[in-house]
Amino acid sequence: MNKKEELERWAQLLRYDVVRMISNANSGHPGGSLSAADIAACLYFNEMNIRPDEPDWPDRDRFILSKGHAAPVLYAALARKGYFSIETLKTLRTAGSMLQGHPDIHTPGVDMTTGCLGQGLSAGCGMALSARLDKKSYRVYVMMGCGEMNEGQVWESVMSAAHFKLDNILVILDYNQLQFDGSVREVLNPGSMKKRWEGFNWNVIEINGHDINEILSSFKKAKETKDIPTVIIADTIKGRGVKFIEKDYMWHSLMDNKKFTEYAEQMREELKNADSFYADRLW
Amino acid sequence: MTYKTGDWIPTRDAYGEALCELGEKNKKVVVFEADISKSTRTNLFGKKFPERYFNVGVAEQNEMAIAAGAAMCGKISFVSTYAVFASMRACEQVRTFVAYPHLNVKICPSHGGITPANDGVTHQGTEDLGIMRTIPGMTVLMPADANATKKLLFAAAEWDGPVYLRLTRDSVPIIYDEKTDFTIGKGILLREGKDVTIIALGDMVSKALDAANLLSTEEISAEVIDMHTIKPLDGDIILNSVKKTRTVVTVEDHQVECGLGGAVSEFLGENYPVPVRRIGFRNTFAESGEYELLLEKYGMSVKHITAGCLNSIKMKGKIR
Amino acid sequence: MEKDIQFLKDTAKELRKNILKMVCAACSGHPGGALSAAEIITALYYGEMHVDPKNPQDPDRDRFILSKGHTCPVLYSVLAMKGYFPLEELQTLRKINGRLQGHPDMNKTPGVDSTAGSLGNGLSIGIGMALMAKLDKKSYRTYVLLGCGELNEGLIWEAAMAAAKFKIDNLLAIVDYNRLQLDGTNDEVMPLEPLADKWKAFNWNVITIDGHDFNQILGAFRKAGETVNQPTVIIANTVKGKGVSFMENKVDWHGKAPNKEQLETALREIENDI
């Protein structure tokens, strides 16, 4: 199995975990978790320098899920990396669980509490500035959603990152074009997202956020870019992988758990029969 | 739309429906939304009155300031988002540009307290009442059920100046019939008693009634007041009750500081000192989980309210 | 036209003198950013806006929001000169029981349409007013004067997005682009360039001018008035402290009052166009 094939499988497994977790919890946000699965797989299984057995390792790469409602995909990646057990995924959103409805800094592997949109990049800038000050080589990855581009704080932090020339920060915009109340066009009509970031002096790379090769090569290009921060605008599909919710903004949060649970079962069967990779990883 | 006692309905649902009725009656009503209309239920208003409905995206500070600008032109602006965002992210806009000019901006956030239970800390507004209550000229409300929501929403629209009206994400039982009248600044005596006064608001009112029922089986008679307005606080209803019971338990889905417990303690401290027990969050954040389980874990369940009452009655004895 | 321009120039001179006198009398205030906006304010109040000083609350009046509220001496001066209140009242700036607060106050001062002073809020408030004009089918326009420092505020960009979404063409934003903020130059504190590209990327119509040239200012107002279905921002290149040699381009004069001696020198320079 080559790298690409392996990462595709991890992404598919993360999707399975997401569907399972949300169906189990009977609440959560599937659409934006699924659109980010390929990127999350590439980050956690290829790109980031982290130690699951030492989550607070000072030299680790940082990851901030600024679009915190997509927590299930982050939890799935963390569990698959061994930060905590797969069993724990069953406790999402239940009282006493380490897996809160939105990412919580107290959970192993979670570098910042998020869920109130628009704050992740500001904290990421602080981390990146510290890395530079401490002459450390860790990088900071911030995944943002398209809805939160509405928040002014995002543009404050975008301005700051460029001013401080933070080339050790990488923003990945999961640009699935849908937010809570509808398409980004309907809600606030952003025009060209690329021009917007360029107007704030960022290096912009546009990719297909479901193409593993494009994701990996964009990470590489970003690393080679000096003195200017990079944003990857990843064209994605909300709900990617679960056909009946794809591109449906109503499925930003869980709509019909009966249907969703049936789908989880169906997905389990399909994966079991698909490939030996999945066989002993399903739950 | 009317609601039957005993049914369970989130007050945000009642808000969405009442807002449409209000919009029909009062053409000065304009509504601002920050990309969560399906959740705050303002999508109903948006469908009915698209020309008076403005969705500004995920941008709460902007939402609040635009609402202020509209109120400066004589409109009654309703602002919908979640309690955490309305009270904290847009706090300065509320203070300086809404409250200081005393504008008709009615801030009506959903997700008050831990009613967005399993969403976790980022979405649970547990400090908002205190923040809002500190702002001069602000009127702060939390209706206990859907019927109260509708009445208080109408009252808020008539009220001169800014109002913060806090709603629940999850269902709460209907305790009022549709004939009950509500006046801003006047608490409601729900149950008479002589041993202890329980003052509650919002989703905790039904819990306070349950606690009073439980106490009655132990021959303790608790008076229950729904203090749907914590600012301006109804001092008369407190004094009348406390002169009889001589001790108070406050119950709120909020930090015990600055909210209802704070308001009642401050009032009694200055006017009629008696022992007060405050039920609510004590210097802690909540977490994800089922609403009832969270109330249990954080010392706010019916059981905790009754224990608070017993404790408070005991305390009264000591002081006597 | 020549004569009109000369009148505006003379008025701006008067405005500058009043600014300096009132700040000196108050022993505090922000002269730098008030002086840089003198031509823009003069052009607005004497060549553009429909307002009636006798009827400051006229519902059909054009609105003006000084979002860069710390530069209120320029606003108070023009309001006094237009007759909203007596010129002598300018001496009460920042004094107790006065109507002229340290930052613009809609509760207290006739002619002030919005409280301002905490930066970044004016454009949002202006959008609220402009939306209501459309809703009520009124023809009044809303003018918002922004400082360059406050463009650091995220709220400005929230407002920029919203104005474009709602196609607000009855609002005009003007950036008094003097390139200095409290802690230094924009470039030192938080660079804004390419500023025009930023606004364009937020779907605005952008007009760049010399903010001290009345022909250009009035021309830009006219062009903005003709633009439909899109909001317009005028980026007015200006000089902070304009008109007073020792204040020009000096960040120190952002928030410092001149003493009596400095005032004399300054007034003389303004009078003689030095």
What does this structure look like?
The complex is a heterotrimer of chains A (283), B (320) and C (274). Chain A has helices at residues 3-25, 30-35, 37-47, 71-81, 120-133, 152-163, 184-187, 193-199, 212-224, 257-274, 276-279; strands at residues 62-65, 140-145, 169-175, 178-179, 182-183, 203-208, 230-235. Chain A is an alpha/beta fold and 283 residues long. Chain A has a single domain (3-279), classed as Thiamin diphosphate (ThDP)-binding fold, Pyr/PP domains (Rossmann fold), CATH 3.40.50.970. In chain A, the strands form two sheets. A five-stranded parallel β-sheet of chain A has the order 1-2-3-7-6, with helices on both faces. A two-stranded antiparallel ribbon of chain A has the order 4-5. With 320 residues, chain B is α/β, with parallel strands linked by helices. Chain B has two domains: 8-173, Thiamin diphosphate (ThDP)-binding fold, Pyr/PP domains (Rossmann fold, 3-Layer(aba) Sandwich), CATH 3.40.50; 188-319, Rossmann fold (3-Layer(aba) Sandwich), CATH 3.40.50. Chain B is 42% helix and 18% strand. Chain B contains 13 helices and 14 strands. In chain B, helix 8 (146-158) links the parallel strand 6 (139-141) and strand 7 (163-165). In chain B, helix 1 (11-25) runs parallel beside helix 8, helix 4 packs parallel to helix 6 and helix 9 crosses helix 13. The model of chain B has no long low-confidence stretch (mean pLDDT 96). Helix content of chain C is 42%, strand content 12%. By secondary structure, chain C is of the alpha/beta class. Chain C is globular. Chain C has ten helices and seven strands. The mean pLDDT of chain C is 96. Chain C has a single domain, classed as Rossmann fold (3-Layer(aba) Sandwich), CATH 3.40.50.970. In chain C, the strands form two sheets. Chain C has a five-stranded parallel β-sheet, sandwiched between helices. A two-stranded antiparallel ribbon of chain C has the order 4-5. In chain C, strand 6 (205-210), helix 9 (214-226) and strand 7 form a beta-alpha-beta unit. The chains are: A alpha/beta (283), B alpha/beta (320), C alpha/beta (274). Chains in contact: A-B, A-C, B-C. Chain A binds chain B through residues 25, 27, 68, 93-97, 99-102, 104, 113-118, 147-148, 150-152, 179-181, 187-188, 250, and chain B through 33, 35-39, 43, 55-59, 61-62, 84-85, 89, 118-123, 287-290, 293-294, 297.
